[in-house]
Design a protein that fits this description.
This protein has four helices and four strands; from the N terminus they run αααβαβββ. With about 140 residues, the protein is of the alpha+beta class. The chain has two domains: about 60 residues, no CATH class; about 80 residues, P-loop containing nucleotide triphosphate hydrolases (Rossmann fold), CATH 3.40.50.
Length: about 140
């Protein structure tokens, strides 16, 4: 929402959730607590993406479905976003599904589902997922 600050954007989700996470704590986790009163037009694309992820996390869902979460981001910001998603999965015991065309990202996943022509083609189990910081593309 372009007319709401970063904090207000996240609080929108908190208001409709049954068991929400703290908006201010999430802003700290995404590294934007000091920018909590900034509007989207005052944030970079990567910062806006992190606010959007925090807004989704605030609902405390059992699963996050992320469609190309790093698609329009530079490498450094992409790694930050992947770290956020991985931490959400690990710290809160949540499922995070990342849909991407960037196959390098799949190396952080526990399970990799491949689609071909709109159908499930194969499933791989990754016994040794990499930390996001070790993924290079």
């Amino acid at each position: 929402m372009h007319n709401l600050t970063a904090l207000e954007n996240i609080l929108l989700s908190v208001q409709i959730a049954k068991n929400p996470l703290s908006a201010e704590e999430l802003l700290k986790k995404v590294g934007l607590y000091d920018r909590k009163n900034h509007f989207p037009s005052q944030l970079s694309g990567g910062e806006q993406q992190r606010v959007a992820i925090a807004r989704a996390m605030a609902k405390n869902p059992r699963m996050l479905l992320c469609d190309e979460p790093t698609g329009a981001l530079d490498y450094k910001t992409s790694i930050q976003v992947l770290r956020l998603l991985k931490d959400f999965c690990d710290i809160y015991s949540k499922t995070v599904v990342i849909i991407t065309h960037n196959t390098a990202i799949s190396r952080i996943a526990h399970r990799i589902f491949y689609l071909k022509d709109g159908r499930l083609d194969k499933i791989e189990v990754n016994e040794n997922p990499l930390p996001p910081e070790k993924v290079i593309w």
